[in-house]
Write a structure and sequence with these properties.
Number of helices: 14
Strand content: 15-25%
Structural class: alpha/beta
Helix content: 25-40%
Number of strands: 20
Distance between the termini: 25 Å
Largest sheet: 7 strands, mixed
Length: 546
């Protein structure tokens, strides 16, 4: 083995960074991230953290909003735990140095707190604490600074995980061979710069790799969001759940050069209205909450409007608000839109839905533990039961904080059992017989094909025929990748292709299993909810090889 560490954290968003900081005083931490440490979904989060901080708000209201947004597929015990633990963890961030936006007048919107609390779709009260319109970056900057200064944390940038390393024992009972529970003892990690695969042995491994928006052609996610943790967890034998529930954010900027640029839901929270090309509002025809309806409703409404009109986009209009207020409340959004030729104080902004957030992922318990020993999953990589069939706006950073805290406390309790035990010595990565690849076109072609058919067939609106077409294509591509993967030396592009193909197949499989429409999963053949058969998680688990 090349490296040993008490805690191996794969991913550098708020969940991974928070976990690392909470365990670092008690053991060594290796934090692996495949780009620069700041490059994560967290850094692009604009809106904020949903937490009960106002005297007119309550835990009951936040729980109710979360359950209703999730179409009651949520695990209520999880919802209650996350909502009630959230405010204390927000206060911890403030103590660490995160500077959230404060209210500037006595007539502030949020009684009982000095901070400005916004409201987003699905919320019944103002409860989204934010740092202007760059909340994620404000959090990430502070957490990274603390991580870099901690003597027990070593950061490995430009390293990408290939696979988890697991071990298990087999017991003989007569002629029956029974395999006991598997345990994770580390991971194989490619150093992208040297092209060497290193073996990291660890006592605990944490999957915190974020989401999988790059499975789709259009996404708000950065390029790193290729579902690595979900794919690795599934390949290692961990259960995954609810991957049919892909949240499409309703409002991404529509412009040929505006790659992945999200127009925060907070803009609608401050009064922006969705209009068609003729300037007519339309959300009143779809939901009584109009423009503040939940994201699944708004995304389907926009999809419907675009199909009816044949237009390329709808528009988000906040021109009726005071220009000075808009510029102050959304400084980053204002400047970015201006760079593309749109003055949001004067011009409606062209927007379309785009893949944004995975509500499903690696299944965990209330402590972030997977069903593989010593393996945790936190943040968007995990399926904790909080979001159900649709995530309530700004509950993602909240979940990441709470579960990183829970997982860290649980891992520290279990660390005592190791004491002076030696590290498991896993086998080194074996690439004997492989050669450098000259088939770059295979990777790029399959990458593009997956993302396009996932958008066309497994998008906002689905059907049996579309899902069947997608499944036929992904089965063929998976076979090509398997044939290719073991013949050539691995590269970061090949690893990411393998992962998006795995996650795509899991999304399609989960979608085919759910014979109803609920939350983010809408299918033409089953347009209604089926509360008799549908109020259960869609769970997939790889059959172990004995």
């Amino acid at each position: 083995m090349d490296y040993t560490t008490d805690f191996l954290v794969i991913g550098s968003g708020v969940a991974g960074l928070t976990f690392a900081l909470k365990v670092a005083d008690h053991g060594t931490v290796a934090l692996v991230t495949k780009r620069d440490i700041m490059e994560s979904n967290t850094a692009y989060a604009q809106g904020g953290i949903a937490a009960v901080l106002s005297s007119v708000d309550s835990f009951d209201l936040h729980i109710k909003d979360t359950m209703e947004s999730g179409d009651h597929l949520n695990n209520r015990d999880v919802v209650e735990m996350v909502v009630t633990h959230g405010p204390d963890l927000v206060r911890e961030l403030i103590e660490l140095g995160v500077k959230f936006s404060r209210s500037e007048s006595e007539g502030k919107k949020s009684p009982g707190t000095e901070y400005d609390l916004g409201r987003e779709g699905g919320h019944s009260e103002n409860r989204v604490i934010h740092a202007d319109d760059m909340t994620g970056r404000a959090m990430e900057t502070v957490l990274v600074d603390h991580v870099r200064r901690h003597p027990n944390i070593r950061v490995y940038e430009h390293h990408i995980a290939l696979d988890l390393i697991t071990y298990s024992t087999r017991m003989r009972s007569g002629l029956l061979i029974k395999q006991q529970e598997s345990s994770c003892c580390g991971a194989y990690i490619l150093d992208i710069r040297t092209k060497k695969v290193n073996t990291f042995a660890s006592r605990f491994t944490v999957l915190a790799t974020g989401g999988a928006g790059k499975v789709y052609l259009y996404t708000s996610n950065p390029d790193v969001a290729t579902g690595d943790g979900i794919a690795m967890g599934f390949r290692a034998g961990a259960s995954v759940a609810n991957l049919e529930f892909v949240q499409f954010h309703p409002t991404c900027l529509y412009h040929p050069e505006a790659k992945n640029f999200l127009i925060s839901e907070a803009v609608r929270g401050e009064g922006a209205v969705l209009i068609d090309a003729n300037g007519n509002p339309f959300m009143h025809r779809y939901d009584s909450l109009k423009d503040l309806a939940c994201r699944d409703v708004v995304s389907r409404a926009i999809d419907s409007e675009l199909k009816k009109s044949g237009a390329d986009s709808v528009f988000l209009d906040i021109t009726h608000k005071d220009p000075a207020f808009v510029r102050k409340r959304f400084p980053n959004l204002y400047e970015k839109c201006l760079s593309f030729g749109f003055d949001m104080t004067q011009d409606p902004i062209p927007v379309v839905p785009a893949a944004h957030y995975m509500c499903g992922g690696v299944a965990t318990d209330l402590n972030g533990k997977t069903d593989i020993n010593n393996l945790y999953a936190v943040g968007e990589t995990a399926c904790t039961g909080l979001h159900g069939a649709n995530r309530l706006a700004s509950n993602s950073l909240l979940e990441a904080l709470v579960y990183a805290d829970r997982a860290a406390k649980n891992a520290l309790e279990e660390l005592q059992a190791f004491h002076d035990k030696a590290f498991v010595d896993p086998p080194d990565w074996d690439d004997a017989g492989t050669t450098d690849s000259d088939e770059v076109s295979l990777v790029s072609h399959n990458w593009d094909e997956i993302r396009r058919f996932m958008w066309d067939y497994v998008g906002v609106v689905r059907s049996n025929k579309r899902l069947e077409r997608a499944m036929r294509r992904i089965v063929n591509i998976q076979q090509e990748i398997r044939d290719y993967y073991w013949d050539f030396k691995v590269t970061s592009d090949l690893i990411e292709l393998r992962n998006i193909a795995t996650v795509a197949e899991l999304i399609i499989t989960c979608a085919m299993k759910r014979k109803e429409s609920r939350g983010l999963h809408y299918t033409i053949e089953y347009p209604a909810k089926d509360d008799v058969n549908g109020l259960k998680d869609t769970v997939l688990k790889r059959t172990p090889v004995i």
